[in-house]
Structure formats: C-alpha cells, structure tokens
Amino acid sequence: MFLYKEARKLAKSGEKPLDIARSLGIKVLFAPFRKIKGLAMSLGNKRIIAINNGLSEAEQQFVCGHELGHFLLHPSTNFVFVLHNTFSYSKQEYQANRFSCELILGEKAEDYKCMITEMAASGKLDQLSRFVSEISSMNEEIP
Amino acid sequence: MRNEKFAKRLKEEREKKGWTQEHMAKLLNIKIGTLSGYERNYRTPDLEMTSKIANLLGVSVDYLLGLNDNEAAPWWEKDTPPTDIELDKFIREQPNLRIFGDPLDEEVKDDIMLALRAAWEALKKERAASKQPKGK
C-alpha cells in the first residue's frame, strides 16, 4: 500500500520517528499524562504530537511513529489520542500501528511482514515497541 | 447571500493546509465544482456545510464568515492563555474525542487539557521567535 511505502521511504533517512516528525514540521511535545500515551492534533495549520514523558525511549518512538501515521494516513481526522487499552480498537489504529512499525524498521519490515500484521492488530504498546526496537537494533546478517 | 470574505478565507485556509480543491472536496463529500463555486463566490454553502468546512479547516465559523475580526483568532493563536471554558468547548467540538462513543473520563480529559495548554505555550513561543528581527 502506498502509505506504508512512504513510511519505508522516510525510514531510509535512518532517522527515528521523533526526528522524522520534526523534520516534517510537526511539533513534538512531552507531557506528564496520567492515562494518555500520545496524542496528535491539528490546530489550524499547525500539527502537534504530544507524548507521555513517562514512557521508555522505545515506547516514545513507537507512539510518535503511530501518531505520525495518523497525520499521513488519516489527514481528515484532526484529533486523535491513544490509551493503552484503545491502541487497536479500530482500523485506523491498526493502520497507524503498522505505519509506525514500517517507519522504524524500514527495509527490514519486509522480512517480518506477518509478525507486523499480527502485532499491529493485537496492538499492545509495550509489546509492539519492544518488538520493533529489538529487530531494528539487530544486525543485518540474519541466518 | 454571497460573502466575499468567506470565499477568500476558504481558499486561503485550504491552501495553508496544502490541499488541492479535489482533495478537500473529497473530504467534504461534495463535487469539486461546488467547492470551486464557494471559493469564487459563485455559491454559498448551507449552515451544515459551513460548520463542516470550519471544522475540517480547524478555524471558527465566525472567522470563515469574516465576522468579528478581532475575535477571529482561535485560542491557539492568541497571546492570552486559553480559559477552561474555551478549551472545554474546543474538546466538545472534536468529533474524535470519544472512547467507543462514550464521553471522556475525567483523567483522560485532564490529560487532553494539559496537552492543549502545552500546545498553546509552544505555539506562543514559536510566534514570539518569528517576530524577533533577524540577525540579532
């Protein structure tokens, strides 16, 4: 699908989602949320992603990629937020999860297609972020 | 009722978003000719479509219609901090701010308020920085 390709293209820069978001002109903020993991909003022509500052680095990157996915995949929704238990409640959430996986893994995503599809659908933030950060830090030479 | 200002602002705001007429017409579920008519001030949308357009563009209906120019700026573009009432209203107007169609629970709502205030602050800082004369 076109937009997942877009994610891989963005991934080629070697940058992580937080930097990719910033380079696309999106403001990234951190806040001590109690329940929300991350949130994407369009205010006029400004696009902002807010991320829970209590999350691990890997989780923050994943959430950022997820919110970025919403901006690019669902441009008409101007306000979305993520709670742990609503991470996969709709097709849009699934797509955003998958986008984030592709964004973090880049070309490697091809080798893990089935796993990504399954994980994105089950949509647990801790599992997803661990999964992608482990694979992305693995060496190229997989037997 | 024709409205020159509405036509102009609609086009301006659409272009700010980087949308083509075709793209925006699709989002609004109307024909491209209809949208183009709005922008050329050949025709005007009904109330329902007007508020749909304002929502999509993230501006107030007042602003789109060119009423109350002083108050045209939405809360995130003002230098005075948004009030709870303003933010509350904003939240209620967002179609996606529901969990499975249920109203937000208090903790989630507090989080969203926090995010909106942080956003306001960041945007204010950005405006201040862009106003600084260059080279200083």
UniProtKB/TrEMBL annotation, chain A:
Protein name in UniProt: Uncharacterized protein DUF955
Domain IrrE N-terminal-like, residue spans: 22-108
Pfam families: Peptidase_M78
InterPro entries, sorted: IrrE_HExxH (IPR010359)
Originating species: Desulfallas thermosapovorans DSM 6562
From TrEMBL, chain B:
Residue stretches in coiled coil: none
Top-level taxonomic group: Bacteria
CDD domains named among the record's database cross-references: HTH_XRE
One Pfam assignment: HTH_3
GO molecular function: DNA binding
Classification via InterPro entries: Cro/C1-type_HTH, Lambda_DNA-bd_dom_sf
Family annotation (PROSITE patterns): HTH_CROC1
Keyword annotations from UniProtKB, A to Z: DNA-binding
Domain HTH cro/C1-type: 10-64
SUPFAM superfamilies: lambda repressor-like DNA-binding domains (SSF47413)
Keyword field contains DNA-binding: yes
Gene3D superfamilies in the record: lambda repressor-like DNA-binding domains
PANTHER family named among the record's database cross-references: HTH-TYPE TRANSCRIPTIONAL REGULATOR ANSR, TRACRIPTIONAL REGULATORY PROTEIN-RELATED-RELATED
Protein name, UniProt field: Helix-turn-helix protein
